[in-house]
Amino acid sequence: MEENNRKAWLYLVPAILFLGVFLVYPLVDVFVYSFEEGYNFASQSRFGVGLYNYGKVLHDVYFLQAVRNTFILVIITVPVSTGLALLISLGLASIPKLKDLFQTIYFLPYVTNTLAVGLVFMVLFRKTDYTDGMVNLLIRWFGGPTVDFIDGPYWAKMFVLCFYTVWVVLPFKILILTSALASVKQDYYNAAKVDGTRKWRIFTRITLPMISPMIFYLVITGFIGAFKAYSDAVALFGTNLNAAGMNTIVGYVYDMLYGNAGGYPSYASAAAIILFVIVLTITCINLMISKKNVHY
Amino acid sequence: MGESLDFDRIERNARIRNTVLKTVTYALLILWGLMVLFPFYWMVLTSVKSYGAYSSENIPQFFTLSPTFENYVKAFTGVPLARYFLNTVIFTVLTTALMLVVIIPAAFAFSRLSFRGRDLLFTLFLSLMMIPNELVVITNFVTITNAGLRNTFAGLILPSVTSVFYIYLLKENFAQIPDELYYAAKVDATTDFRYLTRVMIPISRPTIITITILKVIECWNSYVWPRLITDEQTRYLVSNGIQELRESGFGKDDIPSMMAAVVVISVPLIILFLIFHKKIMEGVSRGGTKG
User: Topology of B79-285 in CATH?
Assistant: First the structure.
């Protein structure tokens, strides 16, 4: 046993070392940083210990802007992407022959570089001096007024960001819901058919309850993921998100850490912890709601 | 007589309703398919338009009759794209290899060896899964900077190595291998290490391949950490390269060259996906997440 003990720990040493240095220690340290008032990385100086960093961050207009953007993004993209994924998965389930082909195509965004494809979206949506761009061409066909989605009004920029986010997160959701739908036992549907149940009733009384755990899983991970939005925004609007007015909370954390306004790990830590508290609260609320409504 | 007519009508109505439903379904599915594929089409199309032709298009053209590869030449000569590419390959290969070296023994210890505190330690490991990256990135940035590892591969790779989730996934897989095999090997005086490399790893190959592919995708697309830790162009990975390109390379308006670079960066993963799409989708549905 003693020898076995030593051997087991030997196998675990690399993992423990890596996790300790890059995951556990940083987790403790981030709280320390967040209470070190006005810590400056360049001069290695601070002027006290306390809650100053949190107050400073919470009164920063850029942070408030980032919080607003992130909440709008979350509130729009989570329901839209989950609903759309459900609709598409139901469609896929009704065409067994071509299901695999469509599913493979739909999965493509998952394996592509967010930054690279974001650049394509930028080109599609933007309006420059010499051309209105692809999307504005479509809008004009339908008789609408053209808009610069990348450098124009706030709602237009928010629309592109939401659209791109949905485009990026949908593959994962479609995949999960499709396999959830496939795992519902055919017996239930057969029984319903014998009773002559209507399609809508089958959907609300059999399909939806059976896949509700997966829907809630997607909603919860969707909330968490959307709150951490950052690289999608960078891809569309460039690294100076504050200037574009499109910064997110995570973007604010990284800007505080590094970049033009950077060098303040303590403000970054405070902002990161605020984000963590928000996400934790929302996740707990989600779990409470799901306990009440999910059928297992 | 009347009754049978009624029956016919009901059946015909049902058929029509079914056809309509099928058509609408197909239309919607195809529409979303186009939404997914169109950006890819547009990026390839734009990358083969000459700069002159592209800038004189007041109305975007949906195809081109005179494709050119000059943008691809420009993409490689105008910016150090080959360098970004090489960096990303080195980063991806080393990170993935190092990850396997770290997680396989750990998963083995958790699934096969019995030692004091195993369950407690495993629970601790699992609880680490809940730590969001955004929280730890700050200290890691300071650690790597203080260690003088900015703009080095070590600085890029080390914090990206471990993943608790993959240890968990592999441990579950190892645990399914019947104990009898282990005892048989013990009777033959096989060492634990030999048993791991000769029996467990070959049996779990599908899972290990899945984990490898998922990690490769993650590495290839990583942006935040490389951006924080590299500021010398010669150390950029493709994601940072593409961002740099957007902000200053080529002159802002040489969109065709930019798109050529985007195509070059996207192609490796798309090829990987086309070969392994079954494995990738299976692996992701077992617990991959994104964002």
Answer: MetI-like fold (1.10.3720)
